[in-house]
Every structure is written in C-alpha cells, then in structure tokens.
Design brief:
The structure is a single chain. This protein is α/β, with parallel strands linked by helices. It folds into two domains: about 10-255, 3-Layer(aba) Sandwich (Aspartate Aminotransferase, domain 2), CATH 3.40.640.10; about 260-395, Aspartate Aminotransferase, domain 1 (Alpha-Beta Complex), CATH 3.90.1150.10. It has helices at about 10-15, 20-25, 40-55, 70-85, 95-105, 120-130, 145, 170-175, 190, 225-240, 245-255, 260-275, 320-330, 360-365, 380-395, and strands at about 85-90, 110-115, 135-140, 150-155, 180-185, 200-205, 220-225, 280-285, 310-315, 335, 345, 370-375. A seven-stranded mixed β-sheet has the order 1-7-6-5-4-2-3, sandwiched between helices. Strands 8-9-12-11-10 form a five-stranded mixed β-sheet. Strand 5 (about 180-185), helix 9 and strand 6 (about 200-205) form a beta-alpha-beta unit. The longest helix has 20 residues, at about 260-275. It is globular and about 75 Å long. The structure holds pyridoxal-5'-phosphate (PLP). Pyridoxal-5'-phosphate binds near residues 161, 208 and 218. Pyridoxal-5'-phosphate binds near residues 93, 122, 157 and 208.
C-alpha cells in the first residue's frame, strides 16, 4: 500500500537508487567494474569477508566482486524499494536466481509445492530433481493439502507463462501457513503487481524481460525480507551468479521508464486481444481482461492491469499452418523471451515449454498450437496489419 505522503510509484521508479547522487556530484549511476578490491588493512578485509560470505553487508572493503558489487547493490536496493521489500539479490539470469532461492529454501526443507503452469525451465528444474529436491504439483486451491512437514517453499507464477492464468496470491499464502511463498511476478513487474503486499515472502523476476525491457540483458532478481534474502546471498556468495555490474547498470537505467513501457504495451495488448477475439481465424485468446478470464476477480485488486502478454491459437489446428503463420510475420519477431521493446511470438509447446512432460503440459492448458505473443511498443495498427497479412498468407480460415 502506498503511503499517502510518499511519492507515487512512477516517481519513485525514476529516483530509486539515486539518493546519493547529489553528494557524489553525478547525474547517472556510476559503474564499478572491479573484480577485486584493495585490502591494505588485512584484518578489516577479513571482517568484511566474514560478513559478505554469509550474505551480510560489507564492513569496509567489498573484497571481491562475487561477494559484492556497488553497482549491482544499487539496482538491488532500487528494485527492493519498488517491490516493498527490505532487500533484493540480483543474478546473472532468472534461473540462477531461482536456483539460489531453492538452495536457500532447502535448509528449511527439500520439498517444494508448486502450481502449474510456470516457465518451462523452472518446471524442469523442479521436476528433474537436479537440486536434490522433490516437488508436488498442485492447483491454487489445493496448496494447503500438498504441504508436508519438510516443505521449504511454495512457488507460484502469476500471470502464468504461457497461459496468462492468474493465481490468487493471498489465497495461496493463507494455505501455506508458515511456509514462505515465492511469487514469480515476471509478467506483471512491480508496476502492475506487488506480491509482498499480498503476503508473499519472496518475489522473483526474470529481469531479462520487462525490467531490462530492451532485450539486451540476461538477469534475475529476487526480493523479500532481510533474513530470507540474506540466506539467498549466502548461497550466491558460495556458488557464484552475482549479476555483472554492466547488467545491473542497464536494469537500473530501465527503472525510470518501466511504468511508461508497461502501460503503453498493455494498452496495445488490450487492443490486439479484442481484435483477435473478434476474428474467426483465431481461437482461444487468453488475456486476463477478456470476459470470463479472471474468475477470482484479481484484476483491479491483486493486479492493476492485464499486462502485455497474451496467447491464442489459430482456428485451423494444422501444425503446418502454425509454422507458415510464424514464418510469414514481417514485423513481429518469432523468438522466445518477452518484455522487450519489440513484439515477440513463439509456440511454447515447441520451444520454451518443450522441457515439460507432454501430459503435464496439456493438463496445464498448453496446447501444441498455442502461440504466446509478447506485445512491444509498436503501434497497434502495424502489429494488427502484420498478424492479418500472415493469416492471409497461410490462408487461415
Ligand atoms: N520466470 C519466467 C516467468 C520466465 O518467463 C523466465 C524466462 O523466460 C524465467 C523465469 C527464467 O529467466 P531467465 O531466462 O532470465 O533465466
């Protein structure tokens, strides 16, 4: 909840992580690329090392980049503030952030409860047992019954990739009891949704997506209370994965324009969703603001807008038509990833979610012909024209 005297979100997004600029005499964040730091006072350096290695703050020297970097720390503090969290930890990818979060949770218990669908590789990481953890897949209404004595974490993703289904965070938090709930809020960003306000313990982003926003950074970030983020930073210090300062700089650079980008892309996605629904060559458009697609009434409460990712199928289910349609697009780029300035499209069953077991994929609503569209900042008329000409090329009917 925003405090009545506090600047509004968009204002804070412009200024976070810049509080010391006047005293530094700078107008843009300084970038510190040092991989190591001088330690002339060895005892002081040893004290700082002891602090950093368990995920605490530096005590003087930063010692070594894997342990701490001021440019990354600046972005982390900014993102944490926007999420309403005490702290955040940034990583070289969303999957690195999830891995460290899972390993930190393992000290509480090696069992995870998770709701499908979620990003394909996250599903794979949990299902494969690669980290020596087990998972119970469930629905948002059955989280409570899936919790075991050794459950260390509950994981949900909302909106979910790629079906854009919404999960009721507060409902899941209530069922989880004392078990921390991690929310992947990549599709929403703090502009549209702040899971901590719904009781989540941790919020994670593939910062590669909207936070970066320009398709040129691979990064992840997880935010939450000091104690939980400290444990995650402890894992990060030991296993590596701290986000490179150039990536951190680019992410921090993106925060002031985040609201503008999200709102503009969302407006365009809303227009396209309506046009797709009204076209008989298209079937099963999924977008939370369409009639019947938000049965729990989460839009306007948990989430302030439907976002800019939607999915749909061609009415003609011929797989050859799907391939021809994607190949015929001229403006929209066929590519995985999302949240960039330009519009991207991909069939999750063939690419991002191919690592998910086929039955599980189907049960989660990821049909083989589903196309996920991440709407960018182009004019909606040009995007619609491109979709239409591709439909005409393939003779979809
Ligand atoms: N979470 C979601 C919702 C994603 O869409 C992705 C990637 O597409 C990830 C996590 C993984 O992030 P990264 O690709 O940055 O490792």
């Amino acid at each position: 909840m925003e405090h009545p005297m506090e600047p509004h979100f968009a204002t804070r997004a412009v200024h976070v992580g810049r509080e010391d600029f006047a005293s530094l005499g700078v107008h843009a964040p300084p970038i510190d690329l040092s991989s190591t730091y001088p330690t002339p006072d060895l005892d002081a350096a040893a004290r700082s090392f002891d602090s950093l290695v368990v995920g605490d703050q530096p005590q003087g020297s930063f010692v070594y980049q894997r342990l701490f970097n001021p440019t990354t720390d600046r972005f982390e503090r900014g993102l944490a503030a926007l999420e309403g969290a005490e702290d955040a930890a940034a990583f070289g990818s969303g999957m690195a952030a999830l891995t460290a979060t899972l390993l930190a949770a393992k000290s509480r218990g090696a069992h995870v409860v998770a709701v499908r669908p979620m990003y394909g590789t996250a599903d794979h990481l949990l299902t494969s047992g690669l980290l020596g953890m087990t998972v119970t897949w469930t629905t948002q209404d059955a989280v409570g019954t899936a919790i075991q004595a050794d459950t260390g974490l509950v994981i949900i993703e909302t909106p979910a990739n790629p079906t854009i289904a919404l999960v009721d965070i507060a409902h899941v938090v209530r069922q989880a009891g004392a078990v921390p709930v991690l929310v992947d809020s990549t599709f929403a960003t703090p502009v549209l949704q702040r899971p901590m306000e719904q009781g989540a313990a941790l919020v994670i982003h593939s910062a590669t997506k909207f936070l970066g926003g320009h398709g040129d950074v691979l990064a992840g970030v997880v935010a939450g209370a000091h104690a939980l983020v400290r444990d995650i930073k402890h894992v990060r210090a030991a296993t590596g994965g701290l986000l490179h300062p150039m990536g951190s700089y680019l992410l921090h650079r993106g925060l002031p324009t985040l609201s503008v980008r999200i709102e503009r892309a969302q407006a365009t996605a809303g227009v396209l969703a309506q046009q797709l629904v009204g076209d008989d060559r298209i079937a099963e458009v999924r977008y939370p603001s369409l009639p019947g697609q938000d049965p729990r009434g989460l839009l306007g409460t948990q989430m302030h807008g439907a976002g800019s990712v939607l999915s749909f199928q061609l009415a003609d289910r011929d797989p050859a038509k799907l391939r021809a349609f994607v190949a015929a697009l001229r403006l929209i780029t066929p590519a995985v990833s999302l949240g960039s300035t330009d519009t991207l499209i991909q069939p999750p069953a063939l690419l991002t979610h191919r690592v998910v077991n086929e039955d599980a994929r189907r049960a989660a609503g990821i049909a083989s012909g589903l196309l996920r569209l991440s709407v960018g900042l182009e004019d909606s008329r040009d995007l619609w024209r491109d979709l239409e000409q591709a439909l005409e090329v393939v003779g979809a009917h």
